[in-house]
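Hey all, sorry for the wall of text incoming. These are the two entities for the joint prediction.
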Amino acid sequence: MIQLYHVHKNYGNYQALVDVSLKVEKGEFLYITGPSGAGKTTLLNIVFCGVKADHGQILVGGKNILKLNDSDIPYYRREIGVVFQDFKLLPRKTVYENIAFAQRVIGVSSKEIKRKVWAALKMVGLSHKKDLLPPRLSGGEQQRVSIARALINEPSIILADEPTGNLDYDISMEIMKLFEDASAKGATVIVATHNREILKTFPHKVVKLNRGKVVEE
Amino acid sequence: MNLLHPFIYAFQEAMTSIRMNKGLNAITIGTIAVSMTLFGIFLLTYINLQKAATGLGGKIKMVAYLKDTVTHQQAESLKKTIASYNEIERFSYIAKEEALSDFKKKLRDKKTILDGLGSNPLPASFIIEVKESFKTLSSMEDIARRLENIEGVEEVEYGREWIDRFETLMVFFKLGMTAVGGVLMVGLLFIISNTIKLSVYSRLDEIEIMKLVGATNRFIKGPFIIEGMIQGLLGSFISILLLTVIYEIFMSKINPSLMIIFGLSDLSFIQPKLIAGMVISGISLGFIGSVVSLGRILKVRT
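and here's what came out:
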């Protein structure tokens, strides 16, 4: 599903990724781990087309994403659900609107949006908070909204960057359960984390990065 | 997928943005309104000057003076020739004797000064009124030249200088209007594009999230472009309202005798066709202003 060959990425003189090669099968659940500054976020960003690799090849679903035009990127991103540590929710839109946003962007009808958002709210257990604004929610709840938004378009790939970074243990487990469910439904999931508890509780393949290099697989 | 959904969404988002940035939008709409009102005042002046010109032009007559040697029969033949001109609305013949008696009437009690004259020094003439559409300098010149070439015609007078001056004034006025219009247009484009830029900057987080979930640049630009167009539309509406108020106040204050001097029965307002033009220009300015400002901002990859 995702293949990286000898990928390099520099930010000025700083080497964020050095000769990274990686293969993630369809439906696989993979952890990218390593200390801060190891290159986890850069790796996810490259797969997401948020930044462009300096060298190497990246195939996603058989497509060489380095050859995508700027105008193709939005359509490519619709195949990917992303979750961030800081949630990236729209503070002036309600929980419902935040989740519906991902559907509106791709032009889904209001009727269909309603049906899907209700299902997504039910899945993350936030139906009763649909009319609240994100700042009124706890961190765990905000992350659940973010996951609902990432999953609503039924992406084939889910990328999560430190999704439990600021959350306590119980809530982190709840969040990870949602990724487990998505994976069980066939999505390819890549989670960047340095939370060892998670790695122990939900064991999957782990790729360890350090200073931009793959040090353990 | 319904093609209307993105448009409805863009419109709703534009309205939300206008509500959220009320102050900024009010300033922009106000600036558009004031600038377009200034332009409208120029336009109103131009329209009414042109109307006055037409009114005064009605009084312009051409006089073809005949040579003293022209006989009565020749004069009759000249009448036929002049009558054949398409450009001439009507004309009348003033014989030498008639010209003298008219002159004497005008002199009234001073007519005795003419007593010493042995013969009638005044020539016979044709007083010619040219059709409205030919009351331009070039047409009048052309008619006068052709009349002067007719055997028996001594000289043709037609207020050349007056027409020339008026036409020059109108050319300068047109140039001034174009210059003012151009400067205002560039200024408005600058203001609109900056308002949209500020609007974009205040929503950069939202744009980032839109990009994350796969929004195309066209989808992201939509609400901002509509916002610019709404600003242009409202600005032009307000300017038309302001112009109506200014026009009504002016009409109620102006001395009617002043208008008569200019040959005007009343002052005209901007025609509906030009009002529509102003509204379309306002919307277009909003559209162009937004597109210009969005082009560079949205080129960022994420």
